[in-house]
Each structure stands twice: as C-alpha cells, then as structure tokens.
Design goal:
- Strands 1, 4, 5, 6, 7, 8, 9, 10 and 11 form a nine-stranded mixed β-sheet that branches.
- The chain has a domain at 158-217 and 228-344: von Willebrand factor, type A domain (Rossmann fold, 3-Layer(aba) Sandwich), CATH 3.40.50.410.
- The longest helix has 50 residues, at 7-56.
- The chain has eight helices and eleven strands.
- The protein has helices spanning 7-56, 168-171, 176-190, 236-248, 258-265, 285-295, 312-324, 340-343, and strands at residues 114-116, 146-149, 152-155, 158-164, 197-203, 207-208, 232-233, 273-278, 302-307, 328-332, 335-338.
- It is 33% helix and 14% strand.
- The protein is α/β, with parallel strands linked by helices.
Length: 355
C-alpha cells in the first residue's frame, strides 16, 4: 500500500525544483557574462594595438639607391642643362673622344641608381659601342650578345665582370656598397641571354673566382695556359651557380687592379668586353694606367665604374676607359652619372677641353 505524500514533501520538492531552476539560470547568466567579458577584453586589446601602430607609423626601410620610374615601368633619365657651363670648341680633343656615354637599360626587379646624363655632349661622346669601338682596332668578335651593368649596356658574346671585393666595400658606408654591387651583379648575370659566355673575377689584394676566397684561391699566372680562367656559359645552371657564389662572396683585403685585369685578358677566347668596378684608388693605379695598353694588348673595351669615389680615384678609372675605348661612369650619393656629367667628378678635368 502506497504511503500518502505529506505536505512537507511537496514543499521540499518544490523548493528543490526552484533551486535547480535558479542554478540553471545563474549558470546561463554566468556563461553570457564570461563571453561578453572576453569579447570586450579582445576589443580593448585590438584598439590598444591599433593605437600603438598608428602612433609609431610604418617602418621606413632606407633605399640603397634612388630610382625614378615612368608610367611604362622604365627608368626616367634625368636630363641636366650642361650647356651653360660648357663652351664648345670646333674640334674636341682626341683624348676625350674615346670616353663614351653610358646608355640606360630597362627596368629590372633590382634597384639601381638613377641616371644623370646631360643633353649636351661637348666631348663628342657617343651612345653605343661594340668590339673595337673608338679605336679602329679590335678583332671584330663582338657577336650579338648584350650585357648590362649599372645602367650601361655592351655588345659582345663574352663578358667579364672584374669587381672590387676589398674590405672598404663593407667598412665604408656600413656595407651598402657591397649590397648594391651584389644586387646589380646578380641582376646583370641573370639577364644574360642564352649562348653568351661570362666570368666574374673578384679581387682585392689578389683575384679569385666564385666558390673561392682571397685566402683559398690558388695563385694563377696569366702567361701559363694551365692557369687561364675558364668561361662559364649563360645556361640556367651556370647562372644559378654564379648567383650563389655572388651571394656567398665576402669582402676583405686591399685593392689591386693589375692581377685581375691580366687574368681577364689572358682568357681564351679573349673577352669581347670587360666591366671594371672599384670603390677606391688601387695601390697600383698609376702603374695600371701607364701599362694598360700592354696589359690589354687585344684592345678590349674596358667600361669602368667608380662606386662613390670622386676625385683622383675616379680619374684613374676614366683614364683606363679612355685609353681602351670603353665607358666611364660613377655612382655618387645614390645616383649614376655618365658622360660629361660623370667626368666632372674626376680630378684634372676641364669641361671645355677634357683631360
């Protein structure tokens, strides 16, 4: 027989149900408050971070070189009015007629200096060249290939880059010069057309090739056929290998021009064009200028580039270019100057009469 339910039991069950309902209500309310609190905290954090970013502003990365681009994505060549300070003579001097104006190249993904090239050409400087240019000599083996370096172009199927990797490339300017050189050298080699041959000769106190260093390179003698530097082909594999060597190359030592130039001219077949870049006056600069025609008996055009070296050091580079029928240019304060605009940075130069 079922026992009758007392009034106390009913009241107790009602209280338990009410308590359970209140507990569930408080539990739901607590979850809602927790979610709202978390959301508010996140919003506050986001607002604080946004305020910090706005207050500090975006990071400004210093540009190594300045480039002005036009709407068609090519470099804008800045023209200078050189006529006011230059008095033309009826006939330009022979010594100046061999220095050539550097031409601009198309835009590459690597920043290069903007080009300053005056409209007036008081020295009779041309705008293009091939093998034997300006000398009446040469062997006529330029071929159809084209190389470019620091805004200039040169025709010839075989090109040698003789580049300065002395310690001053990292000591002066906080390493910006070395970074600039590596970027431009990688860009130049990456754009070499298939079928061309090339080589990069690094130099400081002594010359070395990619994959070597100043202290690991063997001693090479230009007059020994077995020591002659081999050519690299502008294939995909050859370019990748050269680029990796450029990235890994370290700058150290002093500056000597004669040894790397002799090795370049001893290559067989001979180069069609040589690019010589330096950021300072070589210890043997006077000797090289005096003997350049003997060192370069094949009369190969040497295009010279001075990297932030106005004055006497650049004068030697201009003299080398003049004697070989090459081009002289200079990077000064982030801009590339060529022709008369470049020559004004050399010592002993009269705009009206050359050197």
């Amino acid at each position: 027989m079922q026992e009758p339910i007392s009034l106390d039991d009913v009241e107790l069950e009602a209280k338990e149900a009410a308590a359970k309902e209140e507990f569930l209500r408080l539990q739901k309310q607590g979850k809602l408050v927790s979610v709202l609190t978390t959301s508010i905290v996140h919003v506050v954090i986001v607002l604080i971070l946004w305020c910090i970013i706005v207050a500090l502003g975006p990071d400004e990365i210093p540009q190594i070189v300045a480039v002005t681009e036009t709407k068609d994505d090519t470099y804008q060549i800045e023209k200078q009015d050189f006529a006011r300070s230059v008095k033309r003579k009826p006939q330009p001097p022979k010594s100046a007629s061999r220095v050539q104006t550097i031409t601009s190249v198309a835009t590459s993904p690597v920043s290069v200096p903007s080009i300053e090239d005056p409209v007036i050409d008081p020295l009779g400087i041309g705008t293009d060249f091939g093998r034997g240019f300006g000398q009446g000599k040469g062997n006529g083996e330029g071929g159809g290939g084209t190389s470019s370096f620091f805004g200039g172009t040169a025709k010839g199927n075989r090109v040698v880059f003789v580049v300065d990797f002395s310690g001053s490339m990292i000591k002066d300017g906080g390493g910006v010069r070395l970074q600039m050189l590596k970027k431009e050298l990688i860009s130049s080699i990456s754009k070499l057309p298939k079928g061309m041959s090339f080589q990069v000769i690094y130099y400081s106190t002594a010359p070395w090739l990619g994959g070597e260093s100043l202290y690991t390179a063997p001693t090479r003698f230009p007059d020994k056929p077995g020591d002659r530097i081999p050519w690299s082909e502008a294939t995909k594999e050859g370019i990748i290998r050269a680029v990796n060597h450029i990235k890994a190359a370290k700058a150290e030592g002093a500056t000597i021009w004669k040894d790397p130039l002799e090795l370049a001219f001893a290559m067989r077949p001979v180069p069609a064009v040589v690019w010589l870049l330096s950021d300072g006056e070589a210890q043997d600069a006077e000797e090289v200028v005096e003997k350049i025609k003997k060192i370069n008996s094949s009369r190969i055009p040497i295009n010279t580039i001075g990297l932030e070296v106005p004055g006497a050091a650049f004068s030697y580079l201009v003299n080398i270019a003049r004697q070989t029928g090459g081009k002289a240019s200079i990077v000064h304060k982030g801009k590339l100057y060529s022709g008369p605009a470049a020559l004004r940075f050399a010592d002993d130069f009269d705009p009206a009469g050359g050197f």
